[in-house]
Amino acid sequence: MIPPTESLNAFKAVRKPFIAASTVEKPFVAHAPIEINSAKYFYTSAVGGALACGLTHYMMTPVDMLKCRMQVTKGMYSGVIDGFKKVASAEGIKGLYLGGMPTLIGYSLQGMGKYGFYEYFKYLYTGIVGEETAAKYKTMLYLSASGSAEVIADVLLCPMEALKVKMQTSATPFATSFLGGLRKINAAEGINGFYKGLAPLWLRQIPYTMVKFATFERTVEAIYKYALSKPKEQYSKTEQLGVTAAAGYFAGIFCAIVSHPADTLVSKLNNVAKAEGESTGTVAMRILKDLGFTGVWAGLGPRIFMIGTLTAGQWLVVDSYKVWSGLPTTGGAAPAAKKE
C-alpha cells in the first residue's frame, strides 16, 4: 500500500539537519536524516508506533484488566485500589498481568498501523487537496488521516483484543496459555470469534484516534505559540520531548471520555453469547439497553488515568524513536511558506 520511494519525490520536504539549541544541552544534530514522506519515513513511523503502543499497553495491563472486569461485572470492585488488593491477594502478580501477551502483540500491530498509516494518509490527502488547502484546514487533515489509519489498525488489533478480554473477564480461567486461547476461540466460533467485536472496536477506536491525533497536534502547536517564547527548533530535544509528553496526556483525557461508551460495549460484547440467528448489532443494542446511560460509563475513572498515561507515553516513545532515527519530534513546526 505504501508507494515506492521514487513516486514520493514530488512531496518530499527539503530537509536541513534538525538542530535544537540549548544553553544546557549540546545542540542536537540528527545523525541519520530521513527525508519526510519517503518510504523510509513511513516505515520509521510504523516501527515507532509498534514500540509505543505495544510497550505502553503492556505496562498498563493491570489497570486495563480491572477496568474490563468493572465494566463486565458491576460492583466487582469498589475502585481501582480495591481491585488491585483483591487480585494481588487472590492471584498474585501473575493475575494482574492476565491477558498481557495478546495485549503486547495486538497493540504492537495496532500501533504499527496507526502511526505508520497516519503519516502516509497525511501525505496522500495533502497530495489530493493541495498543500495550501491542507495547511488551511489542518485539523480536518489530522482527523481524516488518523481516522483512515485506525480503520486498518483495528483490523490488526481485533483478534488479540477478543482473546485479551476473554482471558481477563471470564468467570473461570478461559485458557491456560496464549496459543490455547486462540485455539479455543477458533474451535468454538471460527473466524467470527476473532472479529465479532470489530464494528464496536471501530466505534471506540476511530473517534478515540481522531481526537488523540488532532488534539495532540493542535496542543503542540498551541504550546509553542502561546506558552513558550521561542520557535520549536530553538529548544533542546529534552525540552521538545517534554512538550510531547504534556500534549499527549492532555489529548489522552479527551480520548478516554469520547470513546468510553464504545469501550464498555466491546468489553461486554466479547463476554455475551449470541442467540441462534442473532446479529452482532442486535446483541449490541440488547447490551446497551441493559446497561442504561450510567452503565456505559462504568470504569471511566481508571480509563482516564490509563489512557492519559498511555497517550503521553506513546507519543513520548514515538517521538524519542523519531529523534533517535534522525527525525524531528511531531507537530509544532511553522507552516510552510505560501507559494506565490
Fill in the keyword field for this structure.
340 residues; mainly alpha; 12 helices; disordered C terminus; two-stranded antiparallel ribbon
Describe the protein.
- The protein is an all-alpha fold.
- It has helices spanning 39-59, 61-72, 80-96, 100-129, 131-136, 138-169, 178-189, 191-195, 198-227, 237-269, 280-295, 300-325; strands at 19-20, 28-29.
- The chain has a two-stranded antiparallel sheet.
- Strand 1 and strand 2 (28-29) form a beta hairpin.
- The longest helix is centred in the C-terminal third of the chain and has 33 residues, at 237-269.
The low-confidence parts are 10-23, 334-340
What is the overall shape?
globular
Q: Output the helix-strand order.
A: EEHHHHHHHHHHHH
Round the Cα radius of gyration to an integer and report it: 21 Å
Question: How many E-type strands?
Answer: 2
Structural class: mainly alpha
Number of helices: 12
Percent helix range: over 70%
Question: Strand order within the widest sheet?
Answer: 1-2
> Ends: how far apart?
33 Å
What is the overall pLDDT average?
83
How much beta, percentage-wise? under 5%
Biggest sheet character: 2 strands, antiparallel
Q: What would you say about this model in short?
A:
The protein is globular and about 55 Å long. Helix content is 71%, strand content 1%.
